[in-house]
Amino acid sequence: MSVEIKSVYPLSPMQQGMLFHSIYAPNSGVYFEQITLNLKGNINIFAFESAWQKIVNRYSILRTFFIWENRPTPLQVVLNQASLPWTNLDWSSLPPTEQQQQLSEFLKTEREQGFALNQAPLMRCTLIKLGDETYKFIWSFHHILIDGWSLSIIFKEVLSFYHA
């Protein structure tokens, strides 16, 4: 499998710090971000997943990985394309207490898995069906990619793509 590189950039000072701390304590979960949303309604799962993939296609930072080994300075490498890791789970047959236990375990496992910073994309999404028209959406990503100011932009565009 060949990987097509679009661009290579130096890291910002903030990214350099995040990379250092992430490498220094790889199992700490530092800079691992998780956003969990409750969704209600008749969700078109294919359209929702496609909307998120369009965001990855649109923003180069979401197709970025980092290289630092055997280099004088670390670099971020942007791929032409990256497939967003997406998981659909159906827990609708489980009682609510078991759903909550499963969710707690899932979130913990996701955090422990973390991200390999030298592999793009540094994010993944999971949509869990909890009942009729009730879902839990989990977006996990490394903070080195996205600051807090960008989150609302991403969610707004996901919803725009989804409704289109």
Question: How would you sum up this structure, described in words?
Answer:
This protein has a single domain, classed as 2-Layer Sandwich (Chloramphenicol Acetyltransferase). The protein contains 4 helices and 7 strands, in the order E-H-E-H-E-E-E-H-E-E-H. It has helices spanning 13-24, 45-58, 96-113, 148-163; strands spanning 5-10, 32-40, 64-67, 75-79, 86-90, 123-131, 134-142. The strands form 2 sheets. Strands 2-7-6-5 form a 4-stranded mixed sheet, with helices on one face. A hairpin with a 2-residue loop joins strand 6 (123-131) and strand 7 (134-142). Helix 2 (45-58) packs across helix 4 (148-163). The longest helix is centred in the middle third of the chain and has 18 residues, at 96-113. The mean pLDDT is 95.
